Amino acid sequence: MTVLSWKAPSWSFLAFWLLWSLASARTPPAAAVASAHPAATEAGMEILRAGGNAFDAAVAVSAALAVVEPYSSGLGGGGFWLLHRASDGRQVMIDGRERAPLAAQREMYLDEKGEVVPGLSIDGPLAAGIPGEPAALAHIARRYGRLPLARSLAPAIRLAREGFEVDAHYRRMARFRLGVLRRHASTRGIFLKEGEVPPLGWRIRQPGLARTLEQLAEKGREGFYAGPVARKLVNSVRRHGGIWTLEDLKAYRVVEREPIVGRYRGYRVVTAAPPSSGGVVLVEMLNMLAQKQLARLSEADHIHFMIEVMRRAYFDRARYLGDPDQVEMPLQKLLSEEHARRWVAGIHMDRATSSAALDFPKREGQDTTHFSIIDREGNRVAATLSINYPFGSGFVAEGTGVLLNDEMDDFSAKPGAANVYGLVGNEANAIAPGRRMLSSMTPTFVEHPEGVAILGTPGGSRIITMVLLGLLEFIEGHGPSDWVSRKRFHHQYLPDQVQFEPGAFSSRVRRRLEEKGHVLKPLERPYGNMQAVFWDRKGNRVEAASDPRGIGLASVLPENIQPR
Ligand code: GLY
């Protein structure tokens, strides 16, 4: 377990918090769910109405997303569930991240010349890590939920059996991965119609997945990691070139990890711990931003400073971060004010730093998913789940309905070589048997006596900067619909370029950034799919918002309490 004691809050900070908290509402007037798909939000609401708490609802939403968003997450994948339990204030990150199979080897994706073989860590069962989501759902239900696992899984089982309708987003994702979806009969027969992207309104039914979910509902984690489901998974993976064994499944464990905690201008930020890089990079960026009087800067200088901050935090990601159970990471140093001060001292306000000049010689999307939940007791969940690239590895293990991840690509196949998201890494994130691959997923709570934000998003390497921008909107006093819709920009150290959404920068700001030496990379399409919940303790209301870029749904219960 990673335990971080980073910076003790001052007595005046604690006294301020205590007094203000006593004056604010103690429990939310409503519950809320925001997720990337209306059927998943509805599954969560069904469980809340049935007397479940936020943790039961999280199990229901995760499992429903596994059915209706097969391009984003699933039983064949993993994720991080950040929990806050109101009764005792316990905050914990459930690490259900995939692990490398025990037979994995450091150079398994390289050819004889030592070059990365394109596609090998992305398509097919060799790209799949050992899934963590089924174990995480059983764990959350058992340790934190109020309802039986079988009750919380019921909406997903129904959705898998009765099917869901293909929408425009599904069609876009399926078109993007058509090649790999056609490759395996077990996948083709579920997600395509006669080998083609199904038409709008076509019903995707997954009876095999329904049976696997029923095994999980009946037997808990043993229903997936042992017995007939495990045997089918392993046999099918091995028949098609993968390296899983029954021992891999038996040995898989979720880990409860202490979240990363930071402080920024009076707000407490609770976020993902390694093996996600998200929390460390987020808190590093906030620590650097805290060094500057941002309000005094022109718009262009403000954005320039933020880009430089992103560049440096992503540099540390590439250099230092990996699986906390297998690698030593200087987390205390990375999260210190001193480290932030040093980085900021090297930022020139008149010109961009070249990423190549940062001393590091070597080397995630439109998929993944996030949901945010609060219940009437004040329990909260922020969860980001993934199978990595859209439709993961594109391989459904025969007889299980389980679409496997391609999370092995989140390892650094070779120092300095970019993964599918252009991210580089080194030793700390090299492939090793049983190791968890580094992630960018950043489920986050931002706490203040006046209100609590629950947020996160998919988006590969850009997740962390999206969470930063959403969090800053909250701190500036905006509501959740602004956090999720804000225009986005991103820098990740390498490639050395500023990526930005259409409309993110005015032409004046673009000119100023170019004059400072930034390489601008306008993106053709918006990115991200943020799902957010806000408990306004001062105003005694709950609001929720779903990113307008996606097809998600935010709902508040009781329904008669309307978001602003
Ligand atoms: N596969 C995306 C991530 O974990 O960051």
Give the averaged pLDDT, no decimals: 93
Strand proportion: 15-25%
Shape estimate? globular
Residue runs with pLDDT of under 50 for 5 or more positions? 1-8, 360-365
- Quaternary: single chain
> Main beta sheet, described?
7 strands, antiparallel
How are the strands of the biggest sheet laid out side by side?
6-3-2-10-9-1-20
Summing up helix and strand content along with how strands pair, one would put the structural category as alpha+beta
Task: Report the bound ligands by name, code or SMILES.
Answer: glycine
Q: N-to-C terminal Cα separation, in Å?
A: 40 Å
Continuous helix count: 19
Entry keywords:
564 residues, alpha+beta, 15% strand, disordered N terminus, binds glycine
Give a written overview of the molecule.
Helix content is 35%, strand content 15%. The protein is built from 19 helices and 20 strands. Helix 2 (38-49) packs antiparallel against helix 5, helix 3 runs antiparallel to helix 4 and helix 13 packs across helix 16. The radius of gyration is 22 Å and the shape is globular. The chain binds glycine (GLY). Glycine binds at residues 364, 368, 386, 388, 407, 410, 439-441, 460. Glycine (GLY) binds at residues 364, 368, 386, 388, 407, 410, 439-441, 460.
